[in-house]
Write a structure and sequence with these properties.
- This protein has 270 residues and is mainly alpha-helical.
- It is built from 15 helices and no strands.
- Helix 1 runs parallel beside helix 3, helix 3 packs antiparallel against helix 4 and helix 11 runs antiparallel to helix 12.
Amino acid sequence: MYEKIVSQLESGYRLSHREFENFEQFLLDDLHQNPLEYRVNHELAALYYSHGNQLRTLAVSYAKKALELQPNSQFDINIINNASDGVLTDWDTGSHYQLIDYYQKTLKTTPENKRLYWYLLDNLLADGRIREAKDVLSESYVQNPDSLNDFYNVYIEEKEKGFSQVKENYLILANQYSDDWRILFSIANELCRNEEYRSAIPIWEKAFEAQEKPRYTDYYESIALCYTFLGEPENAVKSYRKVLEVLRDEWGLRFSAYIERIKEKIDRLS
């Protein structure tokens, strides 16, 4: 049953309500017997997360149709925006203070969760809490020695001074850590966020080559977006075809909802 649940969730196809309820009941029954078992807690989290995303996708689809039928409906626009992870301009609802508080407390009680430093830094910087981010980075250099600290050092500087002041520092960092896919990935992200698509493409490619197989497909999806924004649909299609190639050759995937979405993008661009 566990293998069936994992396989279904990894395929990305939408669960029917009956399938979801059957999986949920199986896991809840197991949780009742084994409340401290990692696997059942993990799979419950994955099940709820996956199903929640599927329901959000349906919400967006119907809200878009509703907006066509009744233009300028704020309620439908809010559903589309919020269910699509759009920007929330209200300071209180758009901030990440609860998540930040959780990360801070968890790092104090279980410092072995070193990966949380990156998530804490990302959320602090997204909320503009730069002073606190500097303190967290100083702590990370001591408690969590890792090359990614050097990226966040430049990233914080970007938040203070602006991208144009640190662009060269990012490129220097990319040369310094040419075999670290995490840093290359992070730098390419920042280049794209600042519309430096042409500069980002070779760094995305380097990041892909630096990762061990089986490799993720984010790199070539990002490259495809770069080419789309640059007005080069043929190159975008080539990048999406690379995504399909990686899924086939490195992950053994030929059929999934994700693959269907990539093929739809290729069809639209073609």
